[in-house]
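Quick question about two entries, pasted in order.
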Amino acid sequence: MTERQWHHIAGFRPALLTKKQMLAGLYITDFHAHLRGKSNVLPNFCAEDQASEFFQQTAPVFERLARLSEPVHSSLIRWFAMNYRGKLHRHIYGNLAQFALMETLRLFKTYDVRCLLKSMDRNGIDRAIVCSLEPFITTQEILEAVAPHKDRILVFASVARNEPHPVQYLQKHIESGEIAGLKIHPQVGQYACNELYECTKDVVALATEYDLPILIHTGHIPASAIGGLANGCGDVRAVAPLVKAFPHAKIVLAHIGWESWRYILELAQQYKHVSVETSWQPPAIIRRALDLLGPHRVLFGSDFPLFHQGMALSMMRQAVTAREFVHVASTNATYILRQRYVDTTSKSA
């Protein structure tokens, strides 16, 4: 295949893959996205913080201003978050955590499944994986929201620290065939660092048993001022025992660790069953991941709606060659998801 043909398949133009290419398994896949459920409110998302007097008085004004300024502030904020992640900057972000929560809630309320599909079409993305965020956004809510779009949207289920029977909770979704993988978010799930392994090892074992990928959030969200997130683990080193204990698991570490990308890439170098996902990283770090791990262990993700798919795709495209793009944006996800892609393709063909 010529380099020109690779460029055509890799989508170095704003167009979807052809039907022939899709049937051959060359889907452009966003491996990391989020949505709210059908409801336009998120009452359980850091409920105590939303109930505070400061939040009640400030949020309505903030939302109106943010809607007007979004075309400007959105890209600027994300650019800063990608390029400035040192201790001082994370301290500043932490002091602005309540405003970050307001913006997160606004984005979830604004960008529903129709917006996701429009964004996918606009950016030439064929498939997206939407992860639930237990306990705030449940797996069942996501399944109901994306039900009419199973040919384009797959779901990863999650579980929170307060779920008394996590394996049974997840197994029912697995056995129903409704989900394509699992997600662990140490901070949102409210896992303390010293208990993350014990509380989630059975979940990783379950994913391994069913040959499902498991996406694990890595990166310290500076949100100590948010009560709903303050107790969750932000130390990326806490995921290492899970990685070491399950050499046959298909583990994907989200965001390449954000500010802790050096540690995550070092960990992934040691354990060949680990891949990384690219959202919230600039081209230089994505390039470093490709050089250290190879193109077969890097997956494109956006973290929509918290990060724009177009911007995430641009960061990744700047880091890869045309041949690498095919792996990072398409075939790596197809391989990790395996039969679930084959099944949905055959039903929609």
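Here is the second entry:
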Amino acid sequence: MLSGVIPANKVKRPNWLQSFFSKVETSVYPTVNFDYEYISKNIMGQFVEAEADTTPVVLPDFGTREMSFAYSKEGLNSSDYEELVKRRIGQQFGTVDVLGNEAWALQQKLMYAEQRFENLFEKTAADILIYGGYSAKSELHRDLKYDFCRTVVSTAAELAGDLVPAANLTSAAVYKPWDSANVYMPVVSDVAGGAGAKAWTKANIVAGTATPVKDLVKMYETAKFRVGTDAVLMSADAYEAFNIDVETNYKEAASQLTALILRAERDVLPRTKDVQGLTLKRSWPIGNGEILDIYVYDGIYSDRLTGVNTKYVPNGWVVLIPSSDNGIKIYGRIQHPRAQYAPMPRWLNFWENSKTGKREWEYHTSFVMGHVEINSVVAWKVV
């Protein structure tokens, strides 16, 4: 440690959700098409007489979403002379390297710009996993909507069915942030006891109309039908409600989980040490030898305009994140002639005022994020 210098503390980054979008590609095309098929049933063949006419095979309905790239830039400018002659973190007293400080300041600004991109990716990943879509818009960007067509159930019969990728158990409509036309996730409305009777509240759990542990089994079965699940993400209030059901109705099962502690310490807990706001709450046996790791993730970002700290994962949600690598990030062309309009993850533009010596940079990226198996991501609004 240098004399008289206290080094800055490193801060863990809230970048867990974007790690599930690890497949990265580049594209020279102006748009990206995400194709999907509606769920096809496993229809059994039938015995027929040789002379009988049979019904023809019907292929599943096919659809596609054509999506444009969204653009993002961060501006960097050169520091004033008064700022450049100040001592920096780690420098000895009385020694100032002005040009070195300028290079150091640029490195630091690039680091913060990269973190802002990272925050944007994390918010995009959260919206895709939770809502099945996202939007790219601001006062400086046209409104682009990205909808990956996740199946949402809205009746008690559908909720009791085999596959429930998305459902809203609360009594209030959940508006999707990527849709400005007020299209919403419908409430499961015809449940006995009225809308919201299956919401994870203490009163509903005690009354027996809400069944968080059984709901988790339903979510797991939906995820397993596709590709399985890697982790269960609950908001803090959803986990609190889940724990009420465990302590009320499954206390004996909960007490038998001490054997899982060693497994958690060896395999799971290292993930939580490196990510801001990520906490392993418990591992829960789901049957068939499967064990689900339940996390609470309270990572936050600061709103650019208001400065308000906001959670990436809002209150009231349970999300089962699939184990397969079906999350994708595609980088498009950089829209600048000096970049030769080539597709690349980042590009740094630079110009200088030869009279004043002031330098400016702009850090560019162009991307689409998506999920090619959106119904394998199970997201329920429960509180």
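Reply: Helices lie at 81-84, 98-131, 156-159, 202-207, 212-226, 236-249, 251-255, 260-272. The radius of gyration is 25 Å. Hope that helps.
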